[in-house]
Every structure is written in C-alpha cells, then in structure tokens.
Amino acid sequence: MVGTSKNAGKSVVIRALAEALWRAGEAFGLCTIGRDGEAADALDGTPKPRFFLRPGTLLATPTSLVPRSPALEIVAVTPERSALGPIVLARVRAPGFVEIAGPPSSVALRRIAAALGEDGRFTLIDGAVDRIAALRDGDDAIVVATGAASAPTLGHAVDDVGALVARLRLPAYDAARPCVRVAGALTAAAAASFVRADERRQIVVRDATHVAFGGRAFTDVAARLDLRCERALRPVACTVAPLGIDRAFEPRAFARAVAERTGLPTFDVYAGTVAGPAAA
Fold it and tell me: pTM higher than 0.85, yes or no?
C-alpha cells in the first residue's frame, strides 16, 4: 500500500483490508515501513487511524510496542531493529488496538515481509513508493492511495496519482532492442538530457523506484522517451480519501476521475463505493 503523499488514507485502507481478510477467514500478516496504529501522529499530534486487529493476525512490531493488552503471542524474534528496538513477529490472541513499526531499510522490510509470508500467508505492507523494493516478486500487488490532503485541487490530485501509476507501470525492457541502462536513479536532469539528445533507445532502470521524479514532469518525459525497467511492478487498484484537513473533493467525482485517469478500479473505503472497471 503506497500513497501519493502523507495523509492519503493508506492506514484506513490497510485497516479495511485487514477486516475484510479476517471476515473471509484468510490468514494474513501485517508490517509497515514507519509507525502506524498510534492514536496521534508523533510529529504533529493529529489524530491517526487505529489498527483494531482480530485473533490470528500475525504482525511485525518492536518489543517496546508489544502491549500488555490485547494479548499478543511472540512467535519469533527477528534480527531486524527499528528506532524503537528489536522487531518481533507476534500473533494477536485477543482483539484490540495494536501499534506497529518497521525497520528503516527496504532490505530489512523485505526480510520481514518474507518471514510473515513464509507459509503462503497474505501479507499487507503499509509502505511508500521508495520502499517498493520490499516486494518479493512480480506477483505482489500495489494499491495506490490519494486524497484531498495531497493536492490543492482535484485536478492536481488526479494528475499526481495518474503520474505515479504510470511510473509504477513501466514496462519490462526488450532484451532484443538497443537500450541505455541507468545505474542508480534516473533524475529529472538526466531524463532532460536524454530528451534534448532525442534518445530513441530504451532507457532502462532497475524498477520504478529508480525514477527519482514524478508528477507532470514524469508525464512529459514518459511521452518523449521509451522508459523501461528490469523488474516490472503490478499496481492493481487506487483508493481515494475525499476529505482533508483544509479541503474536500466531491467523493464520487474524485473516484471517477482517478479511475478514468489510471484505468484502475478506484475504491472509496470511507463511503464503501467503487468506480471504474470493478464497478461493472
């Protein structure tokens, strides 16, 4: 689960997915790149969505956040650490609110996600675009959240999520055609130099996380260069959070606009509605 910005609604969607998986009787694990599930944001004090987890849920969290109640059973101590201490895998034994936190690196997050999914368990990752490297293989799915908090107008929000989805959808490169491989990140300046040179070869990055710019700048460059990647990713849906602290977008219009721009089913988990392909 990734977002176009902070307060895009990722945690609300994770919570909804966790509840849906539990109701369907699916075993699942939960981890995050940061800290989630607390009552208020540690930086600005604003309220945050809590994680109410049901018995059987497996999660990764530091020992300092393991609560006395609800009951958690520690099933493994991992070699990973967060700023809040060693990270353990724990299973929820009694329903209640739980906080989770994750490691600072994508490599460590990948190891934790692999441990949570060892027996084929569905794993939810509350993540970020620059940490998508934590995904284990090409079958992993990405859900992109956007919200009224992320842009000054509905149009800007739609542009941002459209560019992000397009970036995540970079096609795999064709080994039979000429290419220029980019070591590290493709910056806006490097992309501009390729455009000025009228480069016609494939411009190949490791994956979408190695494109270091987005928004309209990415949309413009993608229209003029043949951008490709070695490792394709799989965005499957978008979500919208129509209400922000400073503004609100009309919910159905927002969802429809995101679905039309991205071509992905777009869910408003606040209203329980869907726009786009899944609506049919």
Answer: yes
